Amino acid sequence: MPGHRVALVTGAARGIGRAIVDALAADGFHIVALDLDFEGSDLVESGSLALVRYDLTDIAGIAALVASLGRIDVLINNAGVQPGLAIDDYTEAARERALAVNLKAPVELIRTVSQQMLERHRAHPSGAAGRIVNLTSVAAFMAHTDLWYGVTKAGIVSFTRSFAARLGPQGIQVNAVAPGPIDTDMLNKAAQPERRAELMQRVWSHRTGTPQELAEVVRWLAADAPVILNGAVIDVTDGCFLR
Ligand SMILES: NC(=O)c1ccc[n+]([C@@H]2O[C@H](COP(=O)([O-])OP(=O)(O)OC[C@H]3O[C@@H](n4cnc5c(N)ncnc54)[C@H](O)[C@@H]3O)[C@@H](O)[C@H]2O)c1
What we know:
By secondary structure, the chain is of the alpha/beta class. The chain has one domain: NAD(P)-binding Rossmann-like Domain (Rossmann fold, 3-Layer(aba) Sandwich), CATH 3.40.50. The protein is built from seven helices and seven strands, in the order βαββαβαβαβαααβ. A seven-stranded parallel beta sheet has the order 3-2-1-4-5-6-7, sandwiched between helices. The longest helix has 32 residues. It is globular, with a radius of gyration of 17 Å. The structure holds nicotinamide-adenine-dinucleotide (NAD). Nicotinamide-adenine-dinucleotide binds next to α1 and α5.
């Protein structure tokens, strides 16, 4: 896709990722939309939109996948799972899946995608080499009834800062967004009802955020945020968490 900025969006079939695809496409990006499952998604492959079916629990395959995709200017680590389990109900499989999708896969994606961004920086040291946006959550900062989900989201804050420190001097921005409740399957079907109720008592607008509202923040980080915004976590919480 020469001449176009290319964004790789994970978890793109539905929810927040689906809205990010629209926001970036409207900004002129070509999109590589990655998901485990496109069933029921209205995304349609086109000259500017490639669909990639991939299960991000396959960490070992990520380097080869990224090598097969060509140029990537922007990486949006959006895919995530919330098992919605109390700690005593967690199975090893549920815990490993959350750790793989929410933590290991985005780290491996950043590690591999940033290699081509670093090559671009070496070739054009004054140009923008790439941008990375990670989806964390208010769960990173609050007590959470799904303990392992909270742990993974806190880990995303940690690796956002670590990668920003490593890659920022080479012209790569690595930032994160921490949403409150957003109207998606994850909130409405996966999250525990008590967690949803807790968040909804706190939000100021008395409603869930829309995926489109959140996608606009991600688009800004991916396309327009100044270079000095790096290693940041932008809270999009509607008041349910303040710091
Ligand atoms: N919805 C919220 O209230 C909320 C709040 C805070 C943070 N977040 C975060 O935002 C991100 C998106 O959440 P959402 O609400 O849109 O979730 P969602 O469950 O509606 O969509 C997640 C997408 O990720 C895909 N996915 C899951 N496992 C995958 C795997 N192994 N490989 C590839 N794709 C996989 C799913 O198929 C799905 O299309 C997540 O990281 C989530 O933790 C959501």
